[in-house]
Amino acid sequence: MTTVKSITELNNTTKKLTRNRRSKPSYDSENVKENSSPTMKNLEKFLQEELMHRYNVAIPFIEEACLNDWTKKIIGENKAESVFTTVDLGRLIYQARLWKRYLPRVQPYYAVKSNPDINILRSLFILGVNFDCASKGEIQQILEIGAEPSQIIYANPAKGFDHIIYAREKDVRLMTFDNIFELQKILQNFPNAELVLRISSNDTMSLLPFGYKFGARKDDAFALIAACSELKANLVGISFHVGSGCYSPVAFIDTLHRAREMFSEAEKYGINLSLLDIGGGFPGDDEGPITFSEIASAIAPVIDSLFPSHIQVIAEPGRFFCTSTTTVALQIYAKRDYVLRRVDSESNEITEIKETQYYCPDGVYGNFNNIIYDHAKPICRPLNEPPLDVMLFNSTFFGPTCDSIDVIAKNISFPDMNLGDWVYFANMGAYTIAAGSCFNGFERPPIYYGVLLYKALS
Ligand code: PLP
Q1: Does the active-site annotation cover 360?
Q2: pTM for the whole thing?
């Protein structure tokens, strides 16, 4: 069975800050005590140093008080650009600490698909996070940053032939499946694979349910356990995914009980499962109906009550880590007044709705593809905070392409903006950069990396 490396290495008191670039990075919390206050820079410093020594990338500390000030500083220094993104790697430290505080038993495997930005991946690796890959390309990316094959779960239940063969060649053993054809295909192509049966979940409380595409229902899952026993397949665990954008812990709790049934069923065949994978779906910001800490506090005791401590528990969070790292800043370059006229079909009465329309240099074909693919509703804010009593107008913000679906914020109340003014959208790290294109000849915005200094979670 693959040894699951632990995020607890983040605070391993016995190890010194390492300079051995071949070894897995570790963080020395004694060092924190020596150098703590006033800045609490120590883990940030560790990350910065490791990024330099391992990958030769220099990431600056951001001394500004908040993301907004950092954005303003960049604008001040680079007047020519009209759109850019900031990626705050310090936020990953914050999220890793949050994870460790609420789900200390659960080793996170970051879902690379949510944001495969190279410096995000490197930083997470340095922080002791493992990886969930869905393809040959993602596996390659993770191995290239120096992770070991045992730090990867290949969590795509339907794998292409060349992708499985690549996993075998690279010794990435841990992989999911949810049907008999996939089981047979894996056994033919990679008999030593460590199999994780993905079961269907209660995904009725998620923005993007997956049940139609992935996950074995109870009867099918029981049949698959029987098939594993008969075929002597190396079944090691159970996984599920409650769907992306989950807004209730009940979804997790229900599915944890289903997973427990699978463990008991496997025992009937003499198979002692040793791994539980609770998937992704954990919120990455506090703007939704439920927070990470609320979900985590509700599910941690259930995991402990259903699964004894020798069972390794892992998860595949994507948005949890990357959402809040990224801000998109946009300079308004065109504007018009528009009157929408609606005729009442019965009374023939005409209603007029006035709006101001703004045109911005990034849209749904770029970073804002999350509006289409991820049901996101990004929040537009003026970069320079207006006075409290400012007049608000009905406003719509368009992206730059000639496509009419390219709308990034519709009918929102907003202060009057001039050409050349800046707006920004925070929490733009998940399912944004990952699928953006250059449609209509609009280049991908430049990325500025930094490590913002947050107060450490105690
Ligand atoms: N694991 C699997 C198998 C997924 O398909 C996804 C998202 O599509 C994730 C993890 C990550 O989900 P989230 O970003 O909601 O945590």
Answers
A1: no
A2: 0.91
